[in-house]
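INFO batch 0412 | record 1 of 1 | parsing
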Amino acid sequence: MALGSKFLALFLIHICLLLSLSLAADPFVSYDFDVSYITASPLGVPQQVIAINGKFPGPTINVTTNNNVAINVKNKLDENLLMHWSGIQQRRSSWQDGVPGTNCPIPPKWNWTYQFQVKDQIGSFFYFPTLHMQRASGGFGSFVINNRAIIPIPFDTPYGDIVILIGDWYKRNHTALRKALDAGKDLGMPDGVLINGKGPYQYNTTLVPDGIDHETIEVQPGKTYRIRVHNVGTSTSLNFRIQNHNLLLAESEGSYTVQQNYTSLDIHVGQSYSFLVTTDQNASSDYYIVASARFVNESQWKRVTGVAVLHYTNSKGKAKGPLPEAPNDEFDKTFSMNQARSIRWNVSASGARPNPQGSFRYGSINVTDVYVLRNKPLVTINGKRRATLSGISFVNPTTPIRLADQFKVKGAYKLDFPETPLTGPPKMETSVINGTYRGFMEVILQNNDTKMHSYHLSGYAVFVVGMDYGEWTENSRGTYNKWDGIARSTVQVYPGAWTAILVSLDNVGVWNLRAENLDSWYLGQETYVRIVNPEATNKTELPIPDNALFCGALSKLQKPEDISFAVSITGNRSKFILHAADGCLCIHLRFWLIFPCDNLPLVIACSSLSSQSSLWL
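INFO prediction complete | emitting C-alpha cells
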C-alpha cells in the first residue's frame, strides 16, 4: 500500500504539473469539516454543543472572489445534517445550497463534499446547519469573501480583520428546544447571549456568576480594524456596541454601504455587518463589547446580554463600571427603523467587479411579479401549533424540490403559492412560488405579529426599498428608495410593520425564502422560489452533481457510501485530492478543479453518483 501510494502520488503530480501549464482557472480552496458533539460550558453549565473540527464556533472560511470552494463535511452527529452557506448565492447551482428543498440530508457517519464557486461576490457571511434547529446548538462559523487584488476597496486597508459571532443562547440543546416546540410550547427567554461561543464578562456579580469564560479581543492602539459581526442566534435581535468607540459601517452581506458612524446598531437574526473601528481611546482600561436583547422587556431580559472585552496591548487595567447604554427608545418605536433606513448602498464603490455597484439601476426595472407575504401569530392546524406565511405553513417535501424536477417526480410539491394572503383557514402545504426567469419580483413582507422577524432569500441579494409601520398598500410604493437601497440577503420586519424588497430573478434554481428566527422557521414559516429557464441550458444552471444524494421517492438510486481508503501526503506548496468510490479508484478532471497558482492547492477530483470519498495526496 505504501509503495502503491508513492507511485500514485508521483503519477498524479506529473499529471497536475502538465495540466497546470495548459489550464488556467480560478483558484480552488478546500476545507474538511468534522461535525460532531462536544461538551462545553459557555454559560457555566456543561452542555452538548455542535462543533466543527472539535471547535465551537467553527473555523472561518476565508476565500477570494471567484474562488472555487470544496468543503468535505463528515457527519458525526446522531441525526441527519445539511450545511448552508448563508448569503452565498450559489450562482447556477442551488444543488449546493444545503437546505431541505434542494438537498437530501447527509446521514450520520456519512460524508459529502459541497463544491461551489463564490462567483462575483465579496463580503461578510456565515454558515450553519439547517436541519432540526441544530443552529441553536452551534455548528456555525463565519464565511469571508475578500476582494480580488485588482478591485479596490472603498476604504484604506484595515490593520486587521476580526470576526465576532453574537447570538442568544439556551442551556437546553436543540433537541430539547425542538421537543418544546413540538409540544406546542414557546422557547421562552434565552439563558444568555454568546460572543464567539463564550459567555459574558463578569461586569456584574449579580447577573453574571463566577466561572464563565469570556471573549477577549486584543488590538493595537492607533489602528483601524475591520470588525465583521454576525447574529447567528435563535430568535433575538441584538444591539451591538463597543464602549467609547464609533462603529463606521462599511459593508453588509456583500454590499459596500455609504460609510457613516453609529454608536450602536441593531443586528437582527441572520444579519451580518462590517464596521471599521479605530482604536483611538486611551489605554487606562479595557473596553466593553456588548450585544444586548432588543424589542423585549429589557428590564426582565438583563441577563440576555453578551459582554466581551476589547483589550489594547498597552491597557493598564480591566474594563469596569456600567455597560454602555443601549438605545433608550422604549416609547419611540421609530428609532430602530430610522436607523435601518439610514443604511444605504454605496453606488460609486466597486463590489466584486470593477464597475460601480450603482451601475445596476434597480429602480428603473419594471416589476413582473408581486407577492405579499403576511406573517401572523402562531395558529393551530390539525391540532398542531404552526407558523405561517400568507396562511400557508410549509411542509418540507420527502423528495427535495430540485431533485423532483430533475427526475420528474410527480406530486412532490405544488407550484401554487398565492400572490396575496389566503382568506380562508390556514393550511399545511408544500407550496412553492413560481418565479419568472429574468423577471423582476417585488415582495412585501407584512409582519402582523407582535415579535420582530427577519427573512432570508437564498440565491440572491435583494434590494431593501422600503419599510414602515402599519399595513402596506399600493400607495406605499411612493415611499420606495429606488436609487441606493441596500442590497443584502437578510432583512428585518418590525412588529406591526412591513418591509418591501425587489429582486432580479436571474439565478436559475430552487431558492429558500424563510424566517431566520429558528422557532418560526421550524414551525413552517418558509417557502421556495422556483426559477426555471425554459431553454434548459447548462449556461444558466450547472448539471446535477455527480455525488448527489438521493432520498424520498428517489431513495432506490442511493447506493451505500463506500470509503475505500485514504492517504495523506502534503507537500509544502501543493495538495492533491483523489476520490475513491464504489471500490475502485478513479480520476475525474474538471477544468475548474485544476489551476496553477503558487501557495494554493492543485486539485484532482473524482466522484460517482453513489458516493464521494476523499484521498488527499
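INFO post-check: Helices lie at 2-22, 174-182, 334-341, 401-406, 518-522.
INFO record closed
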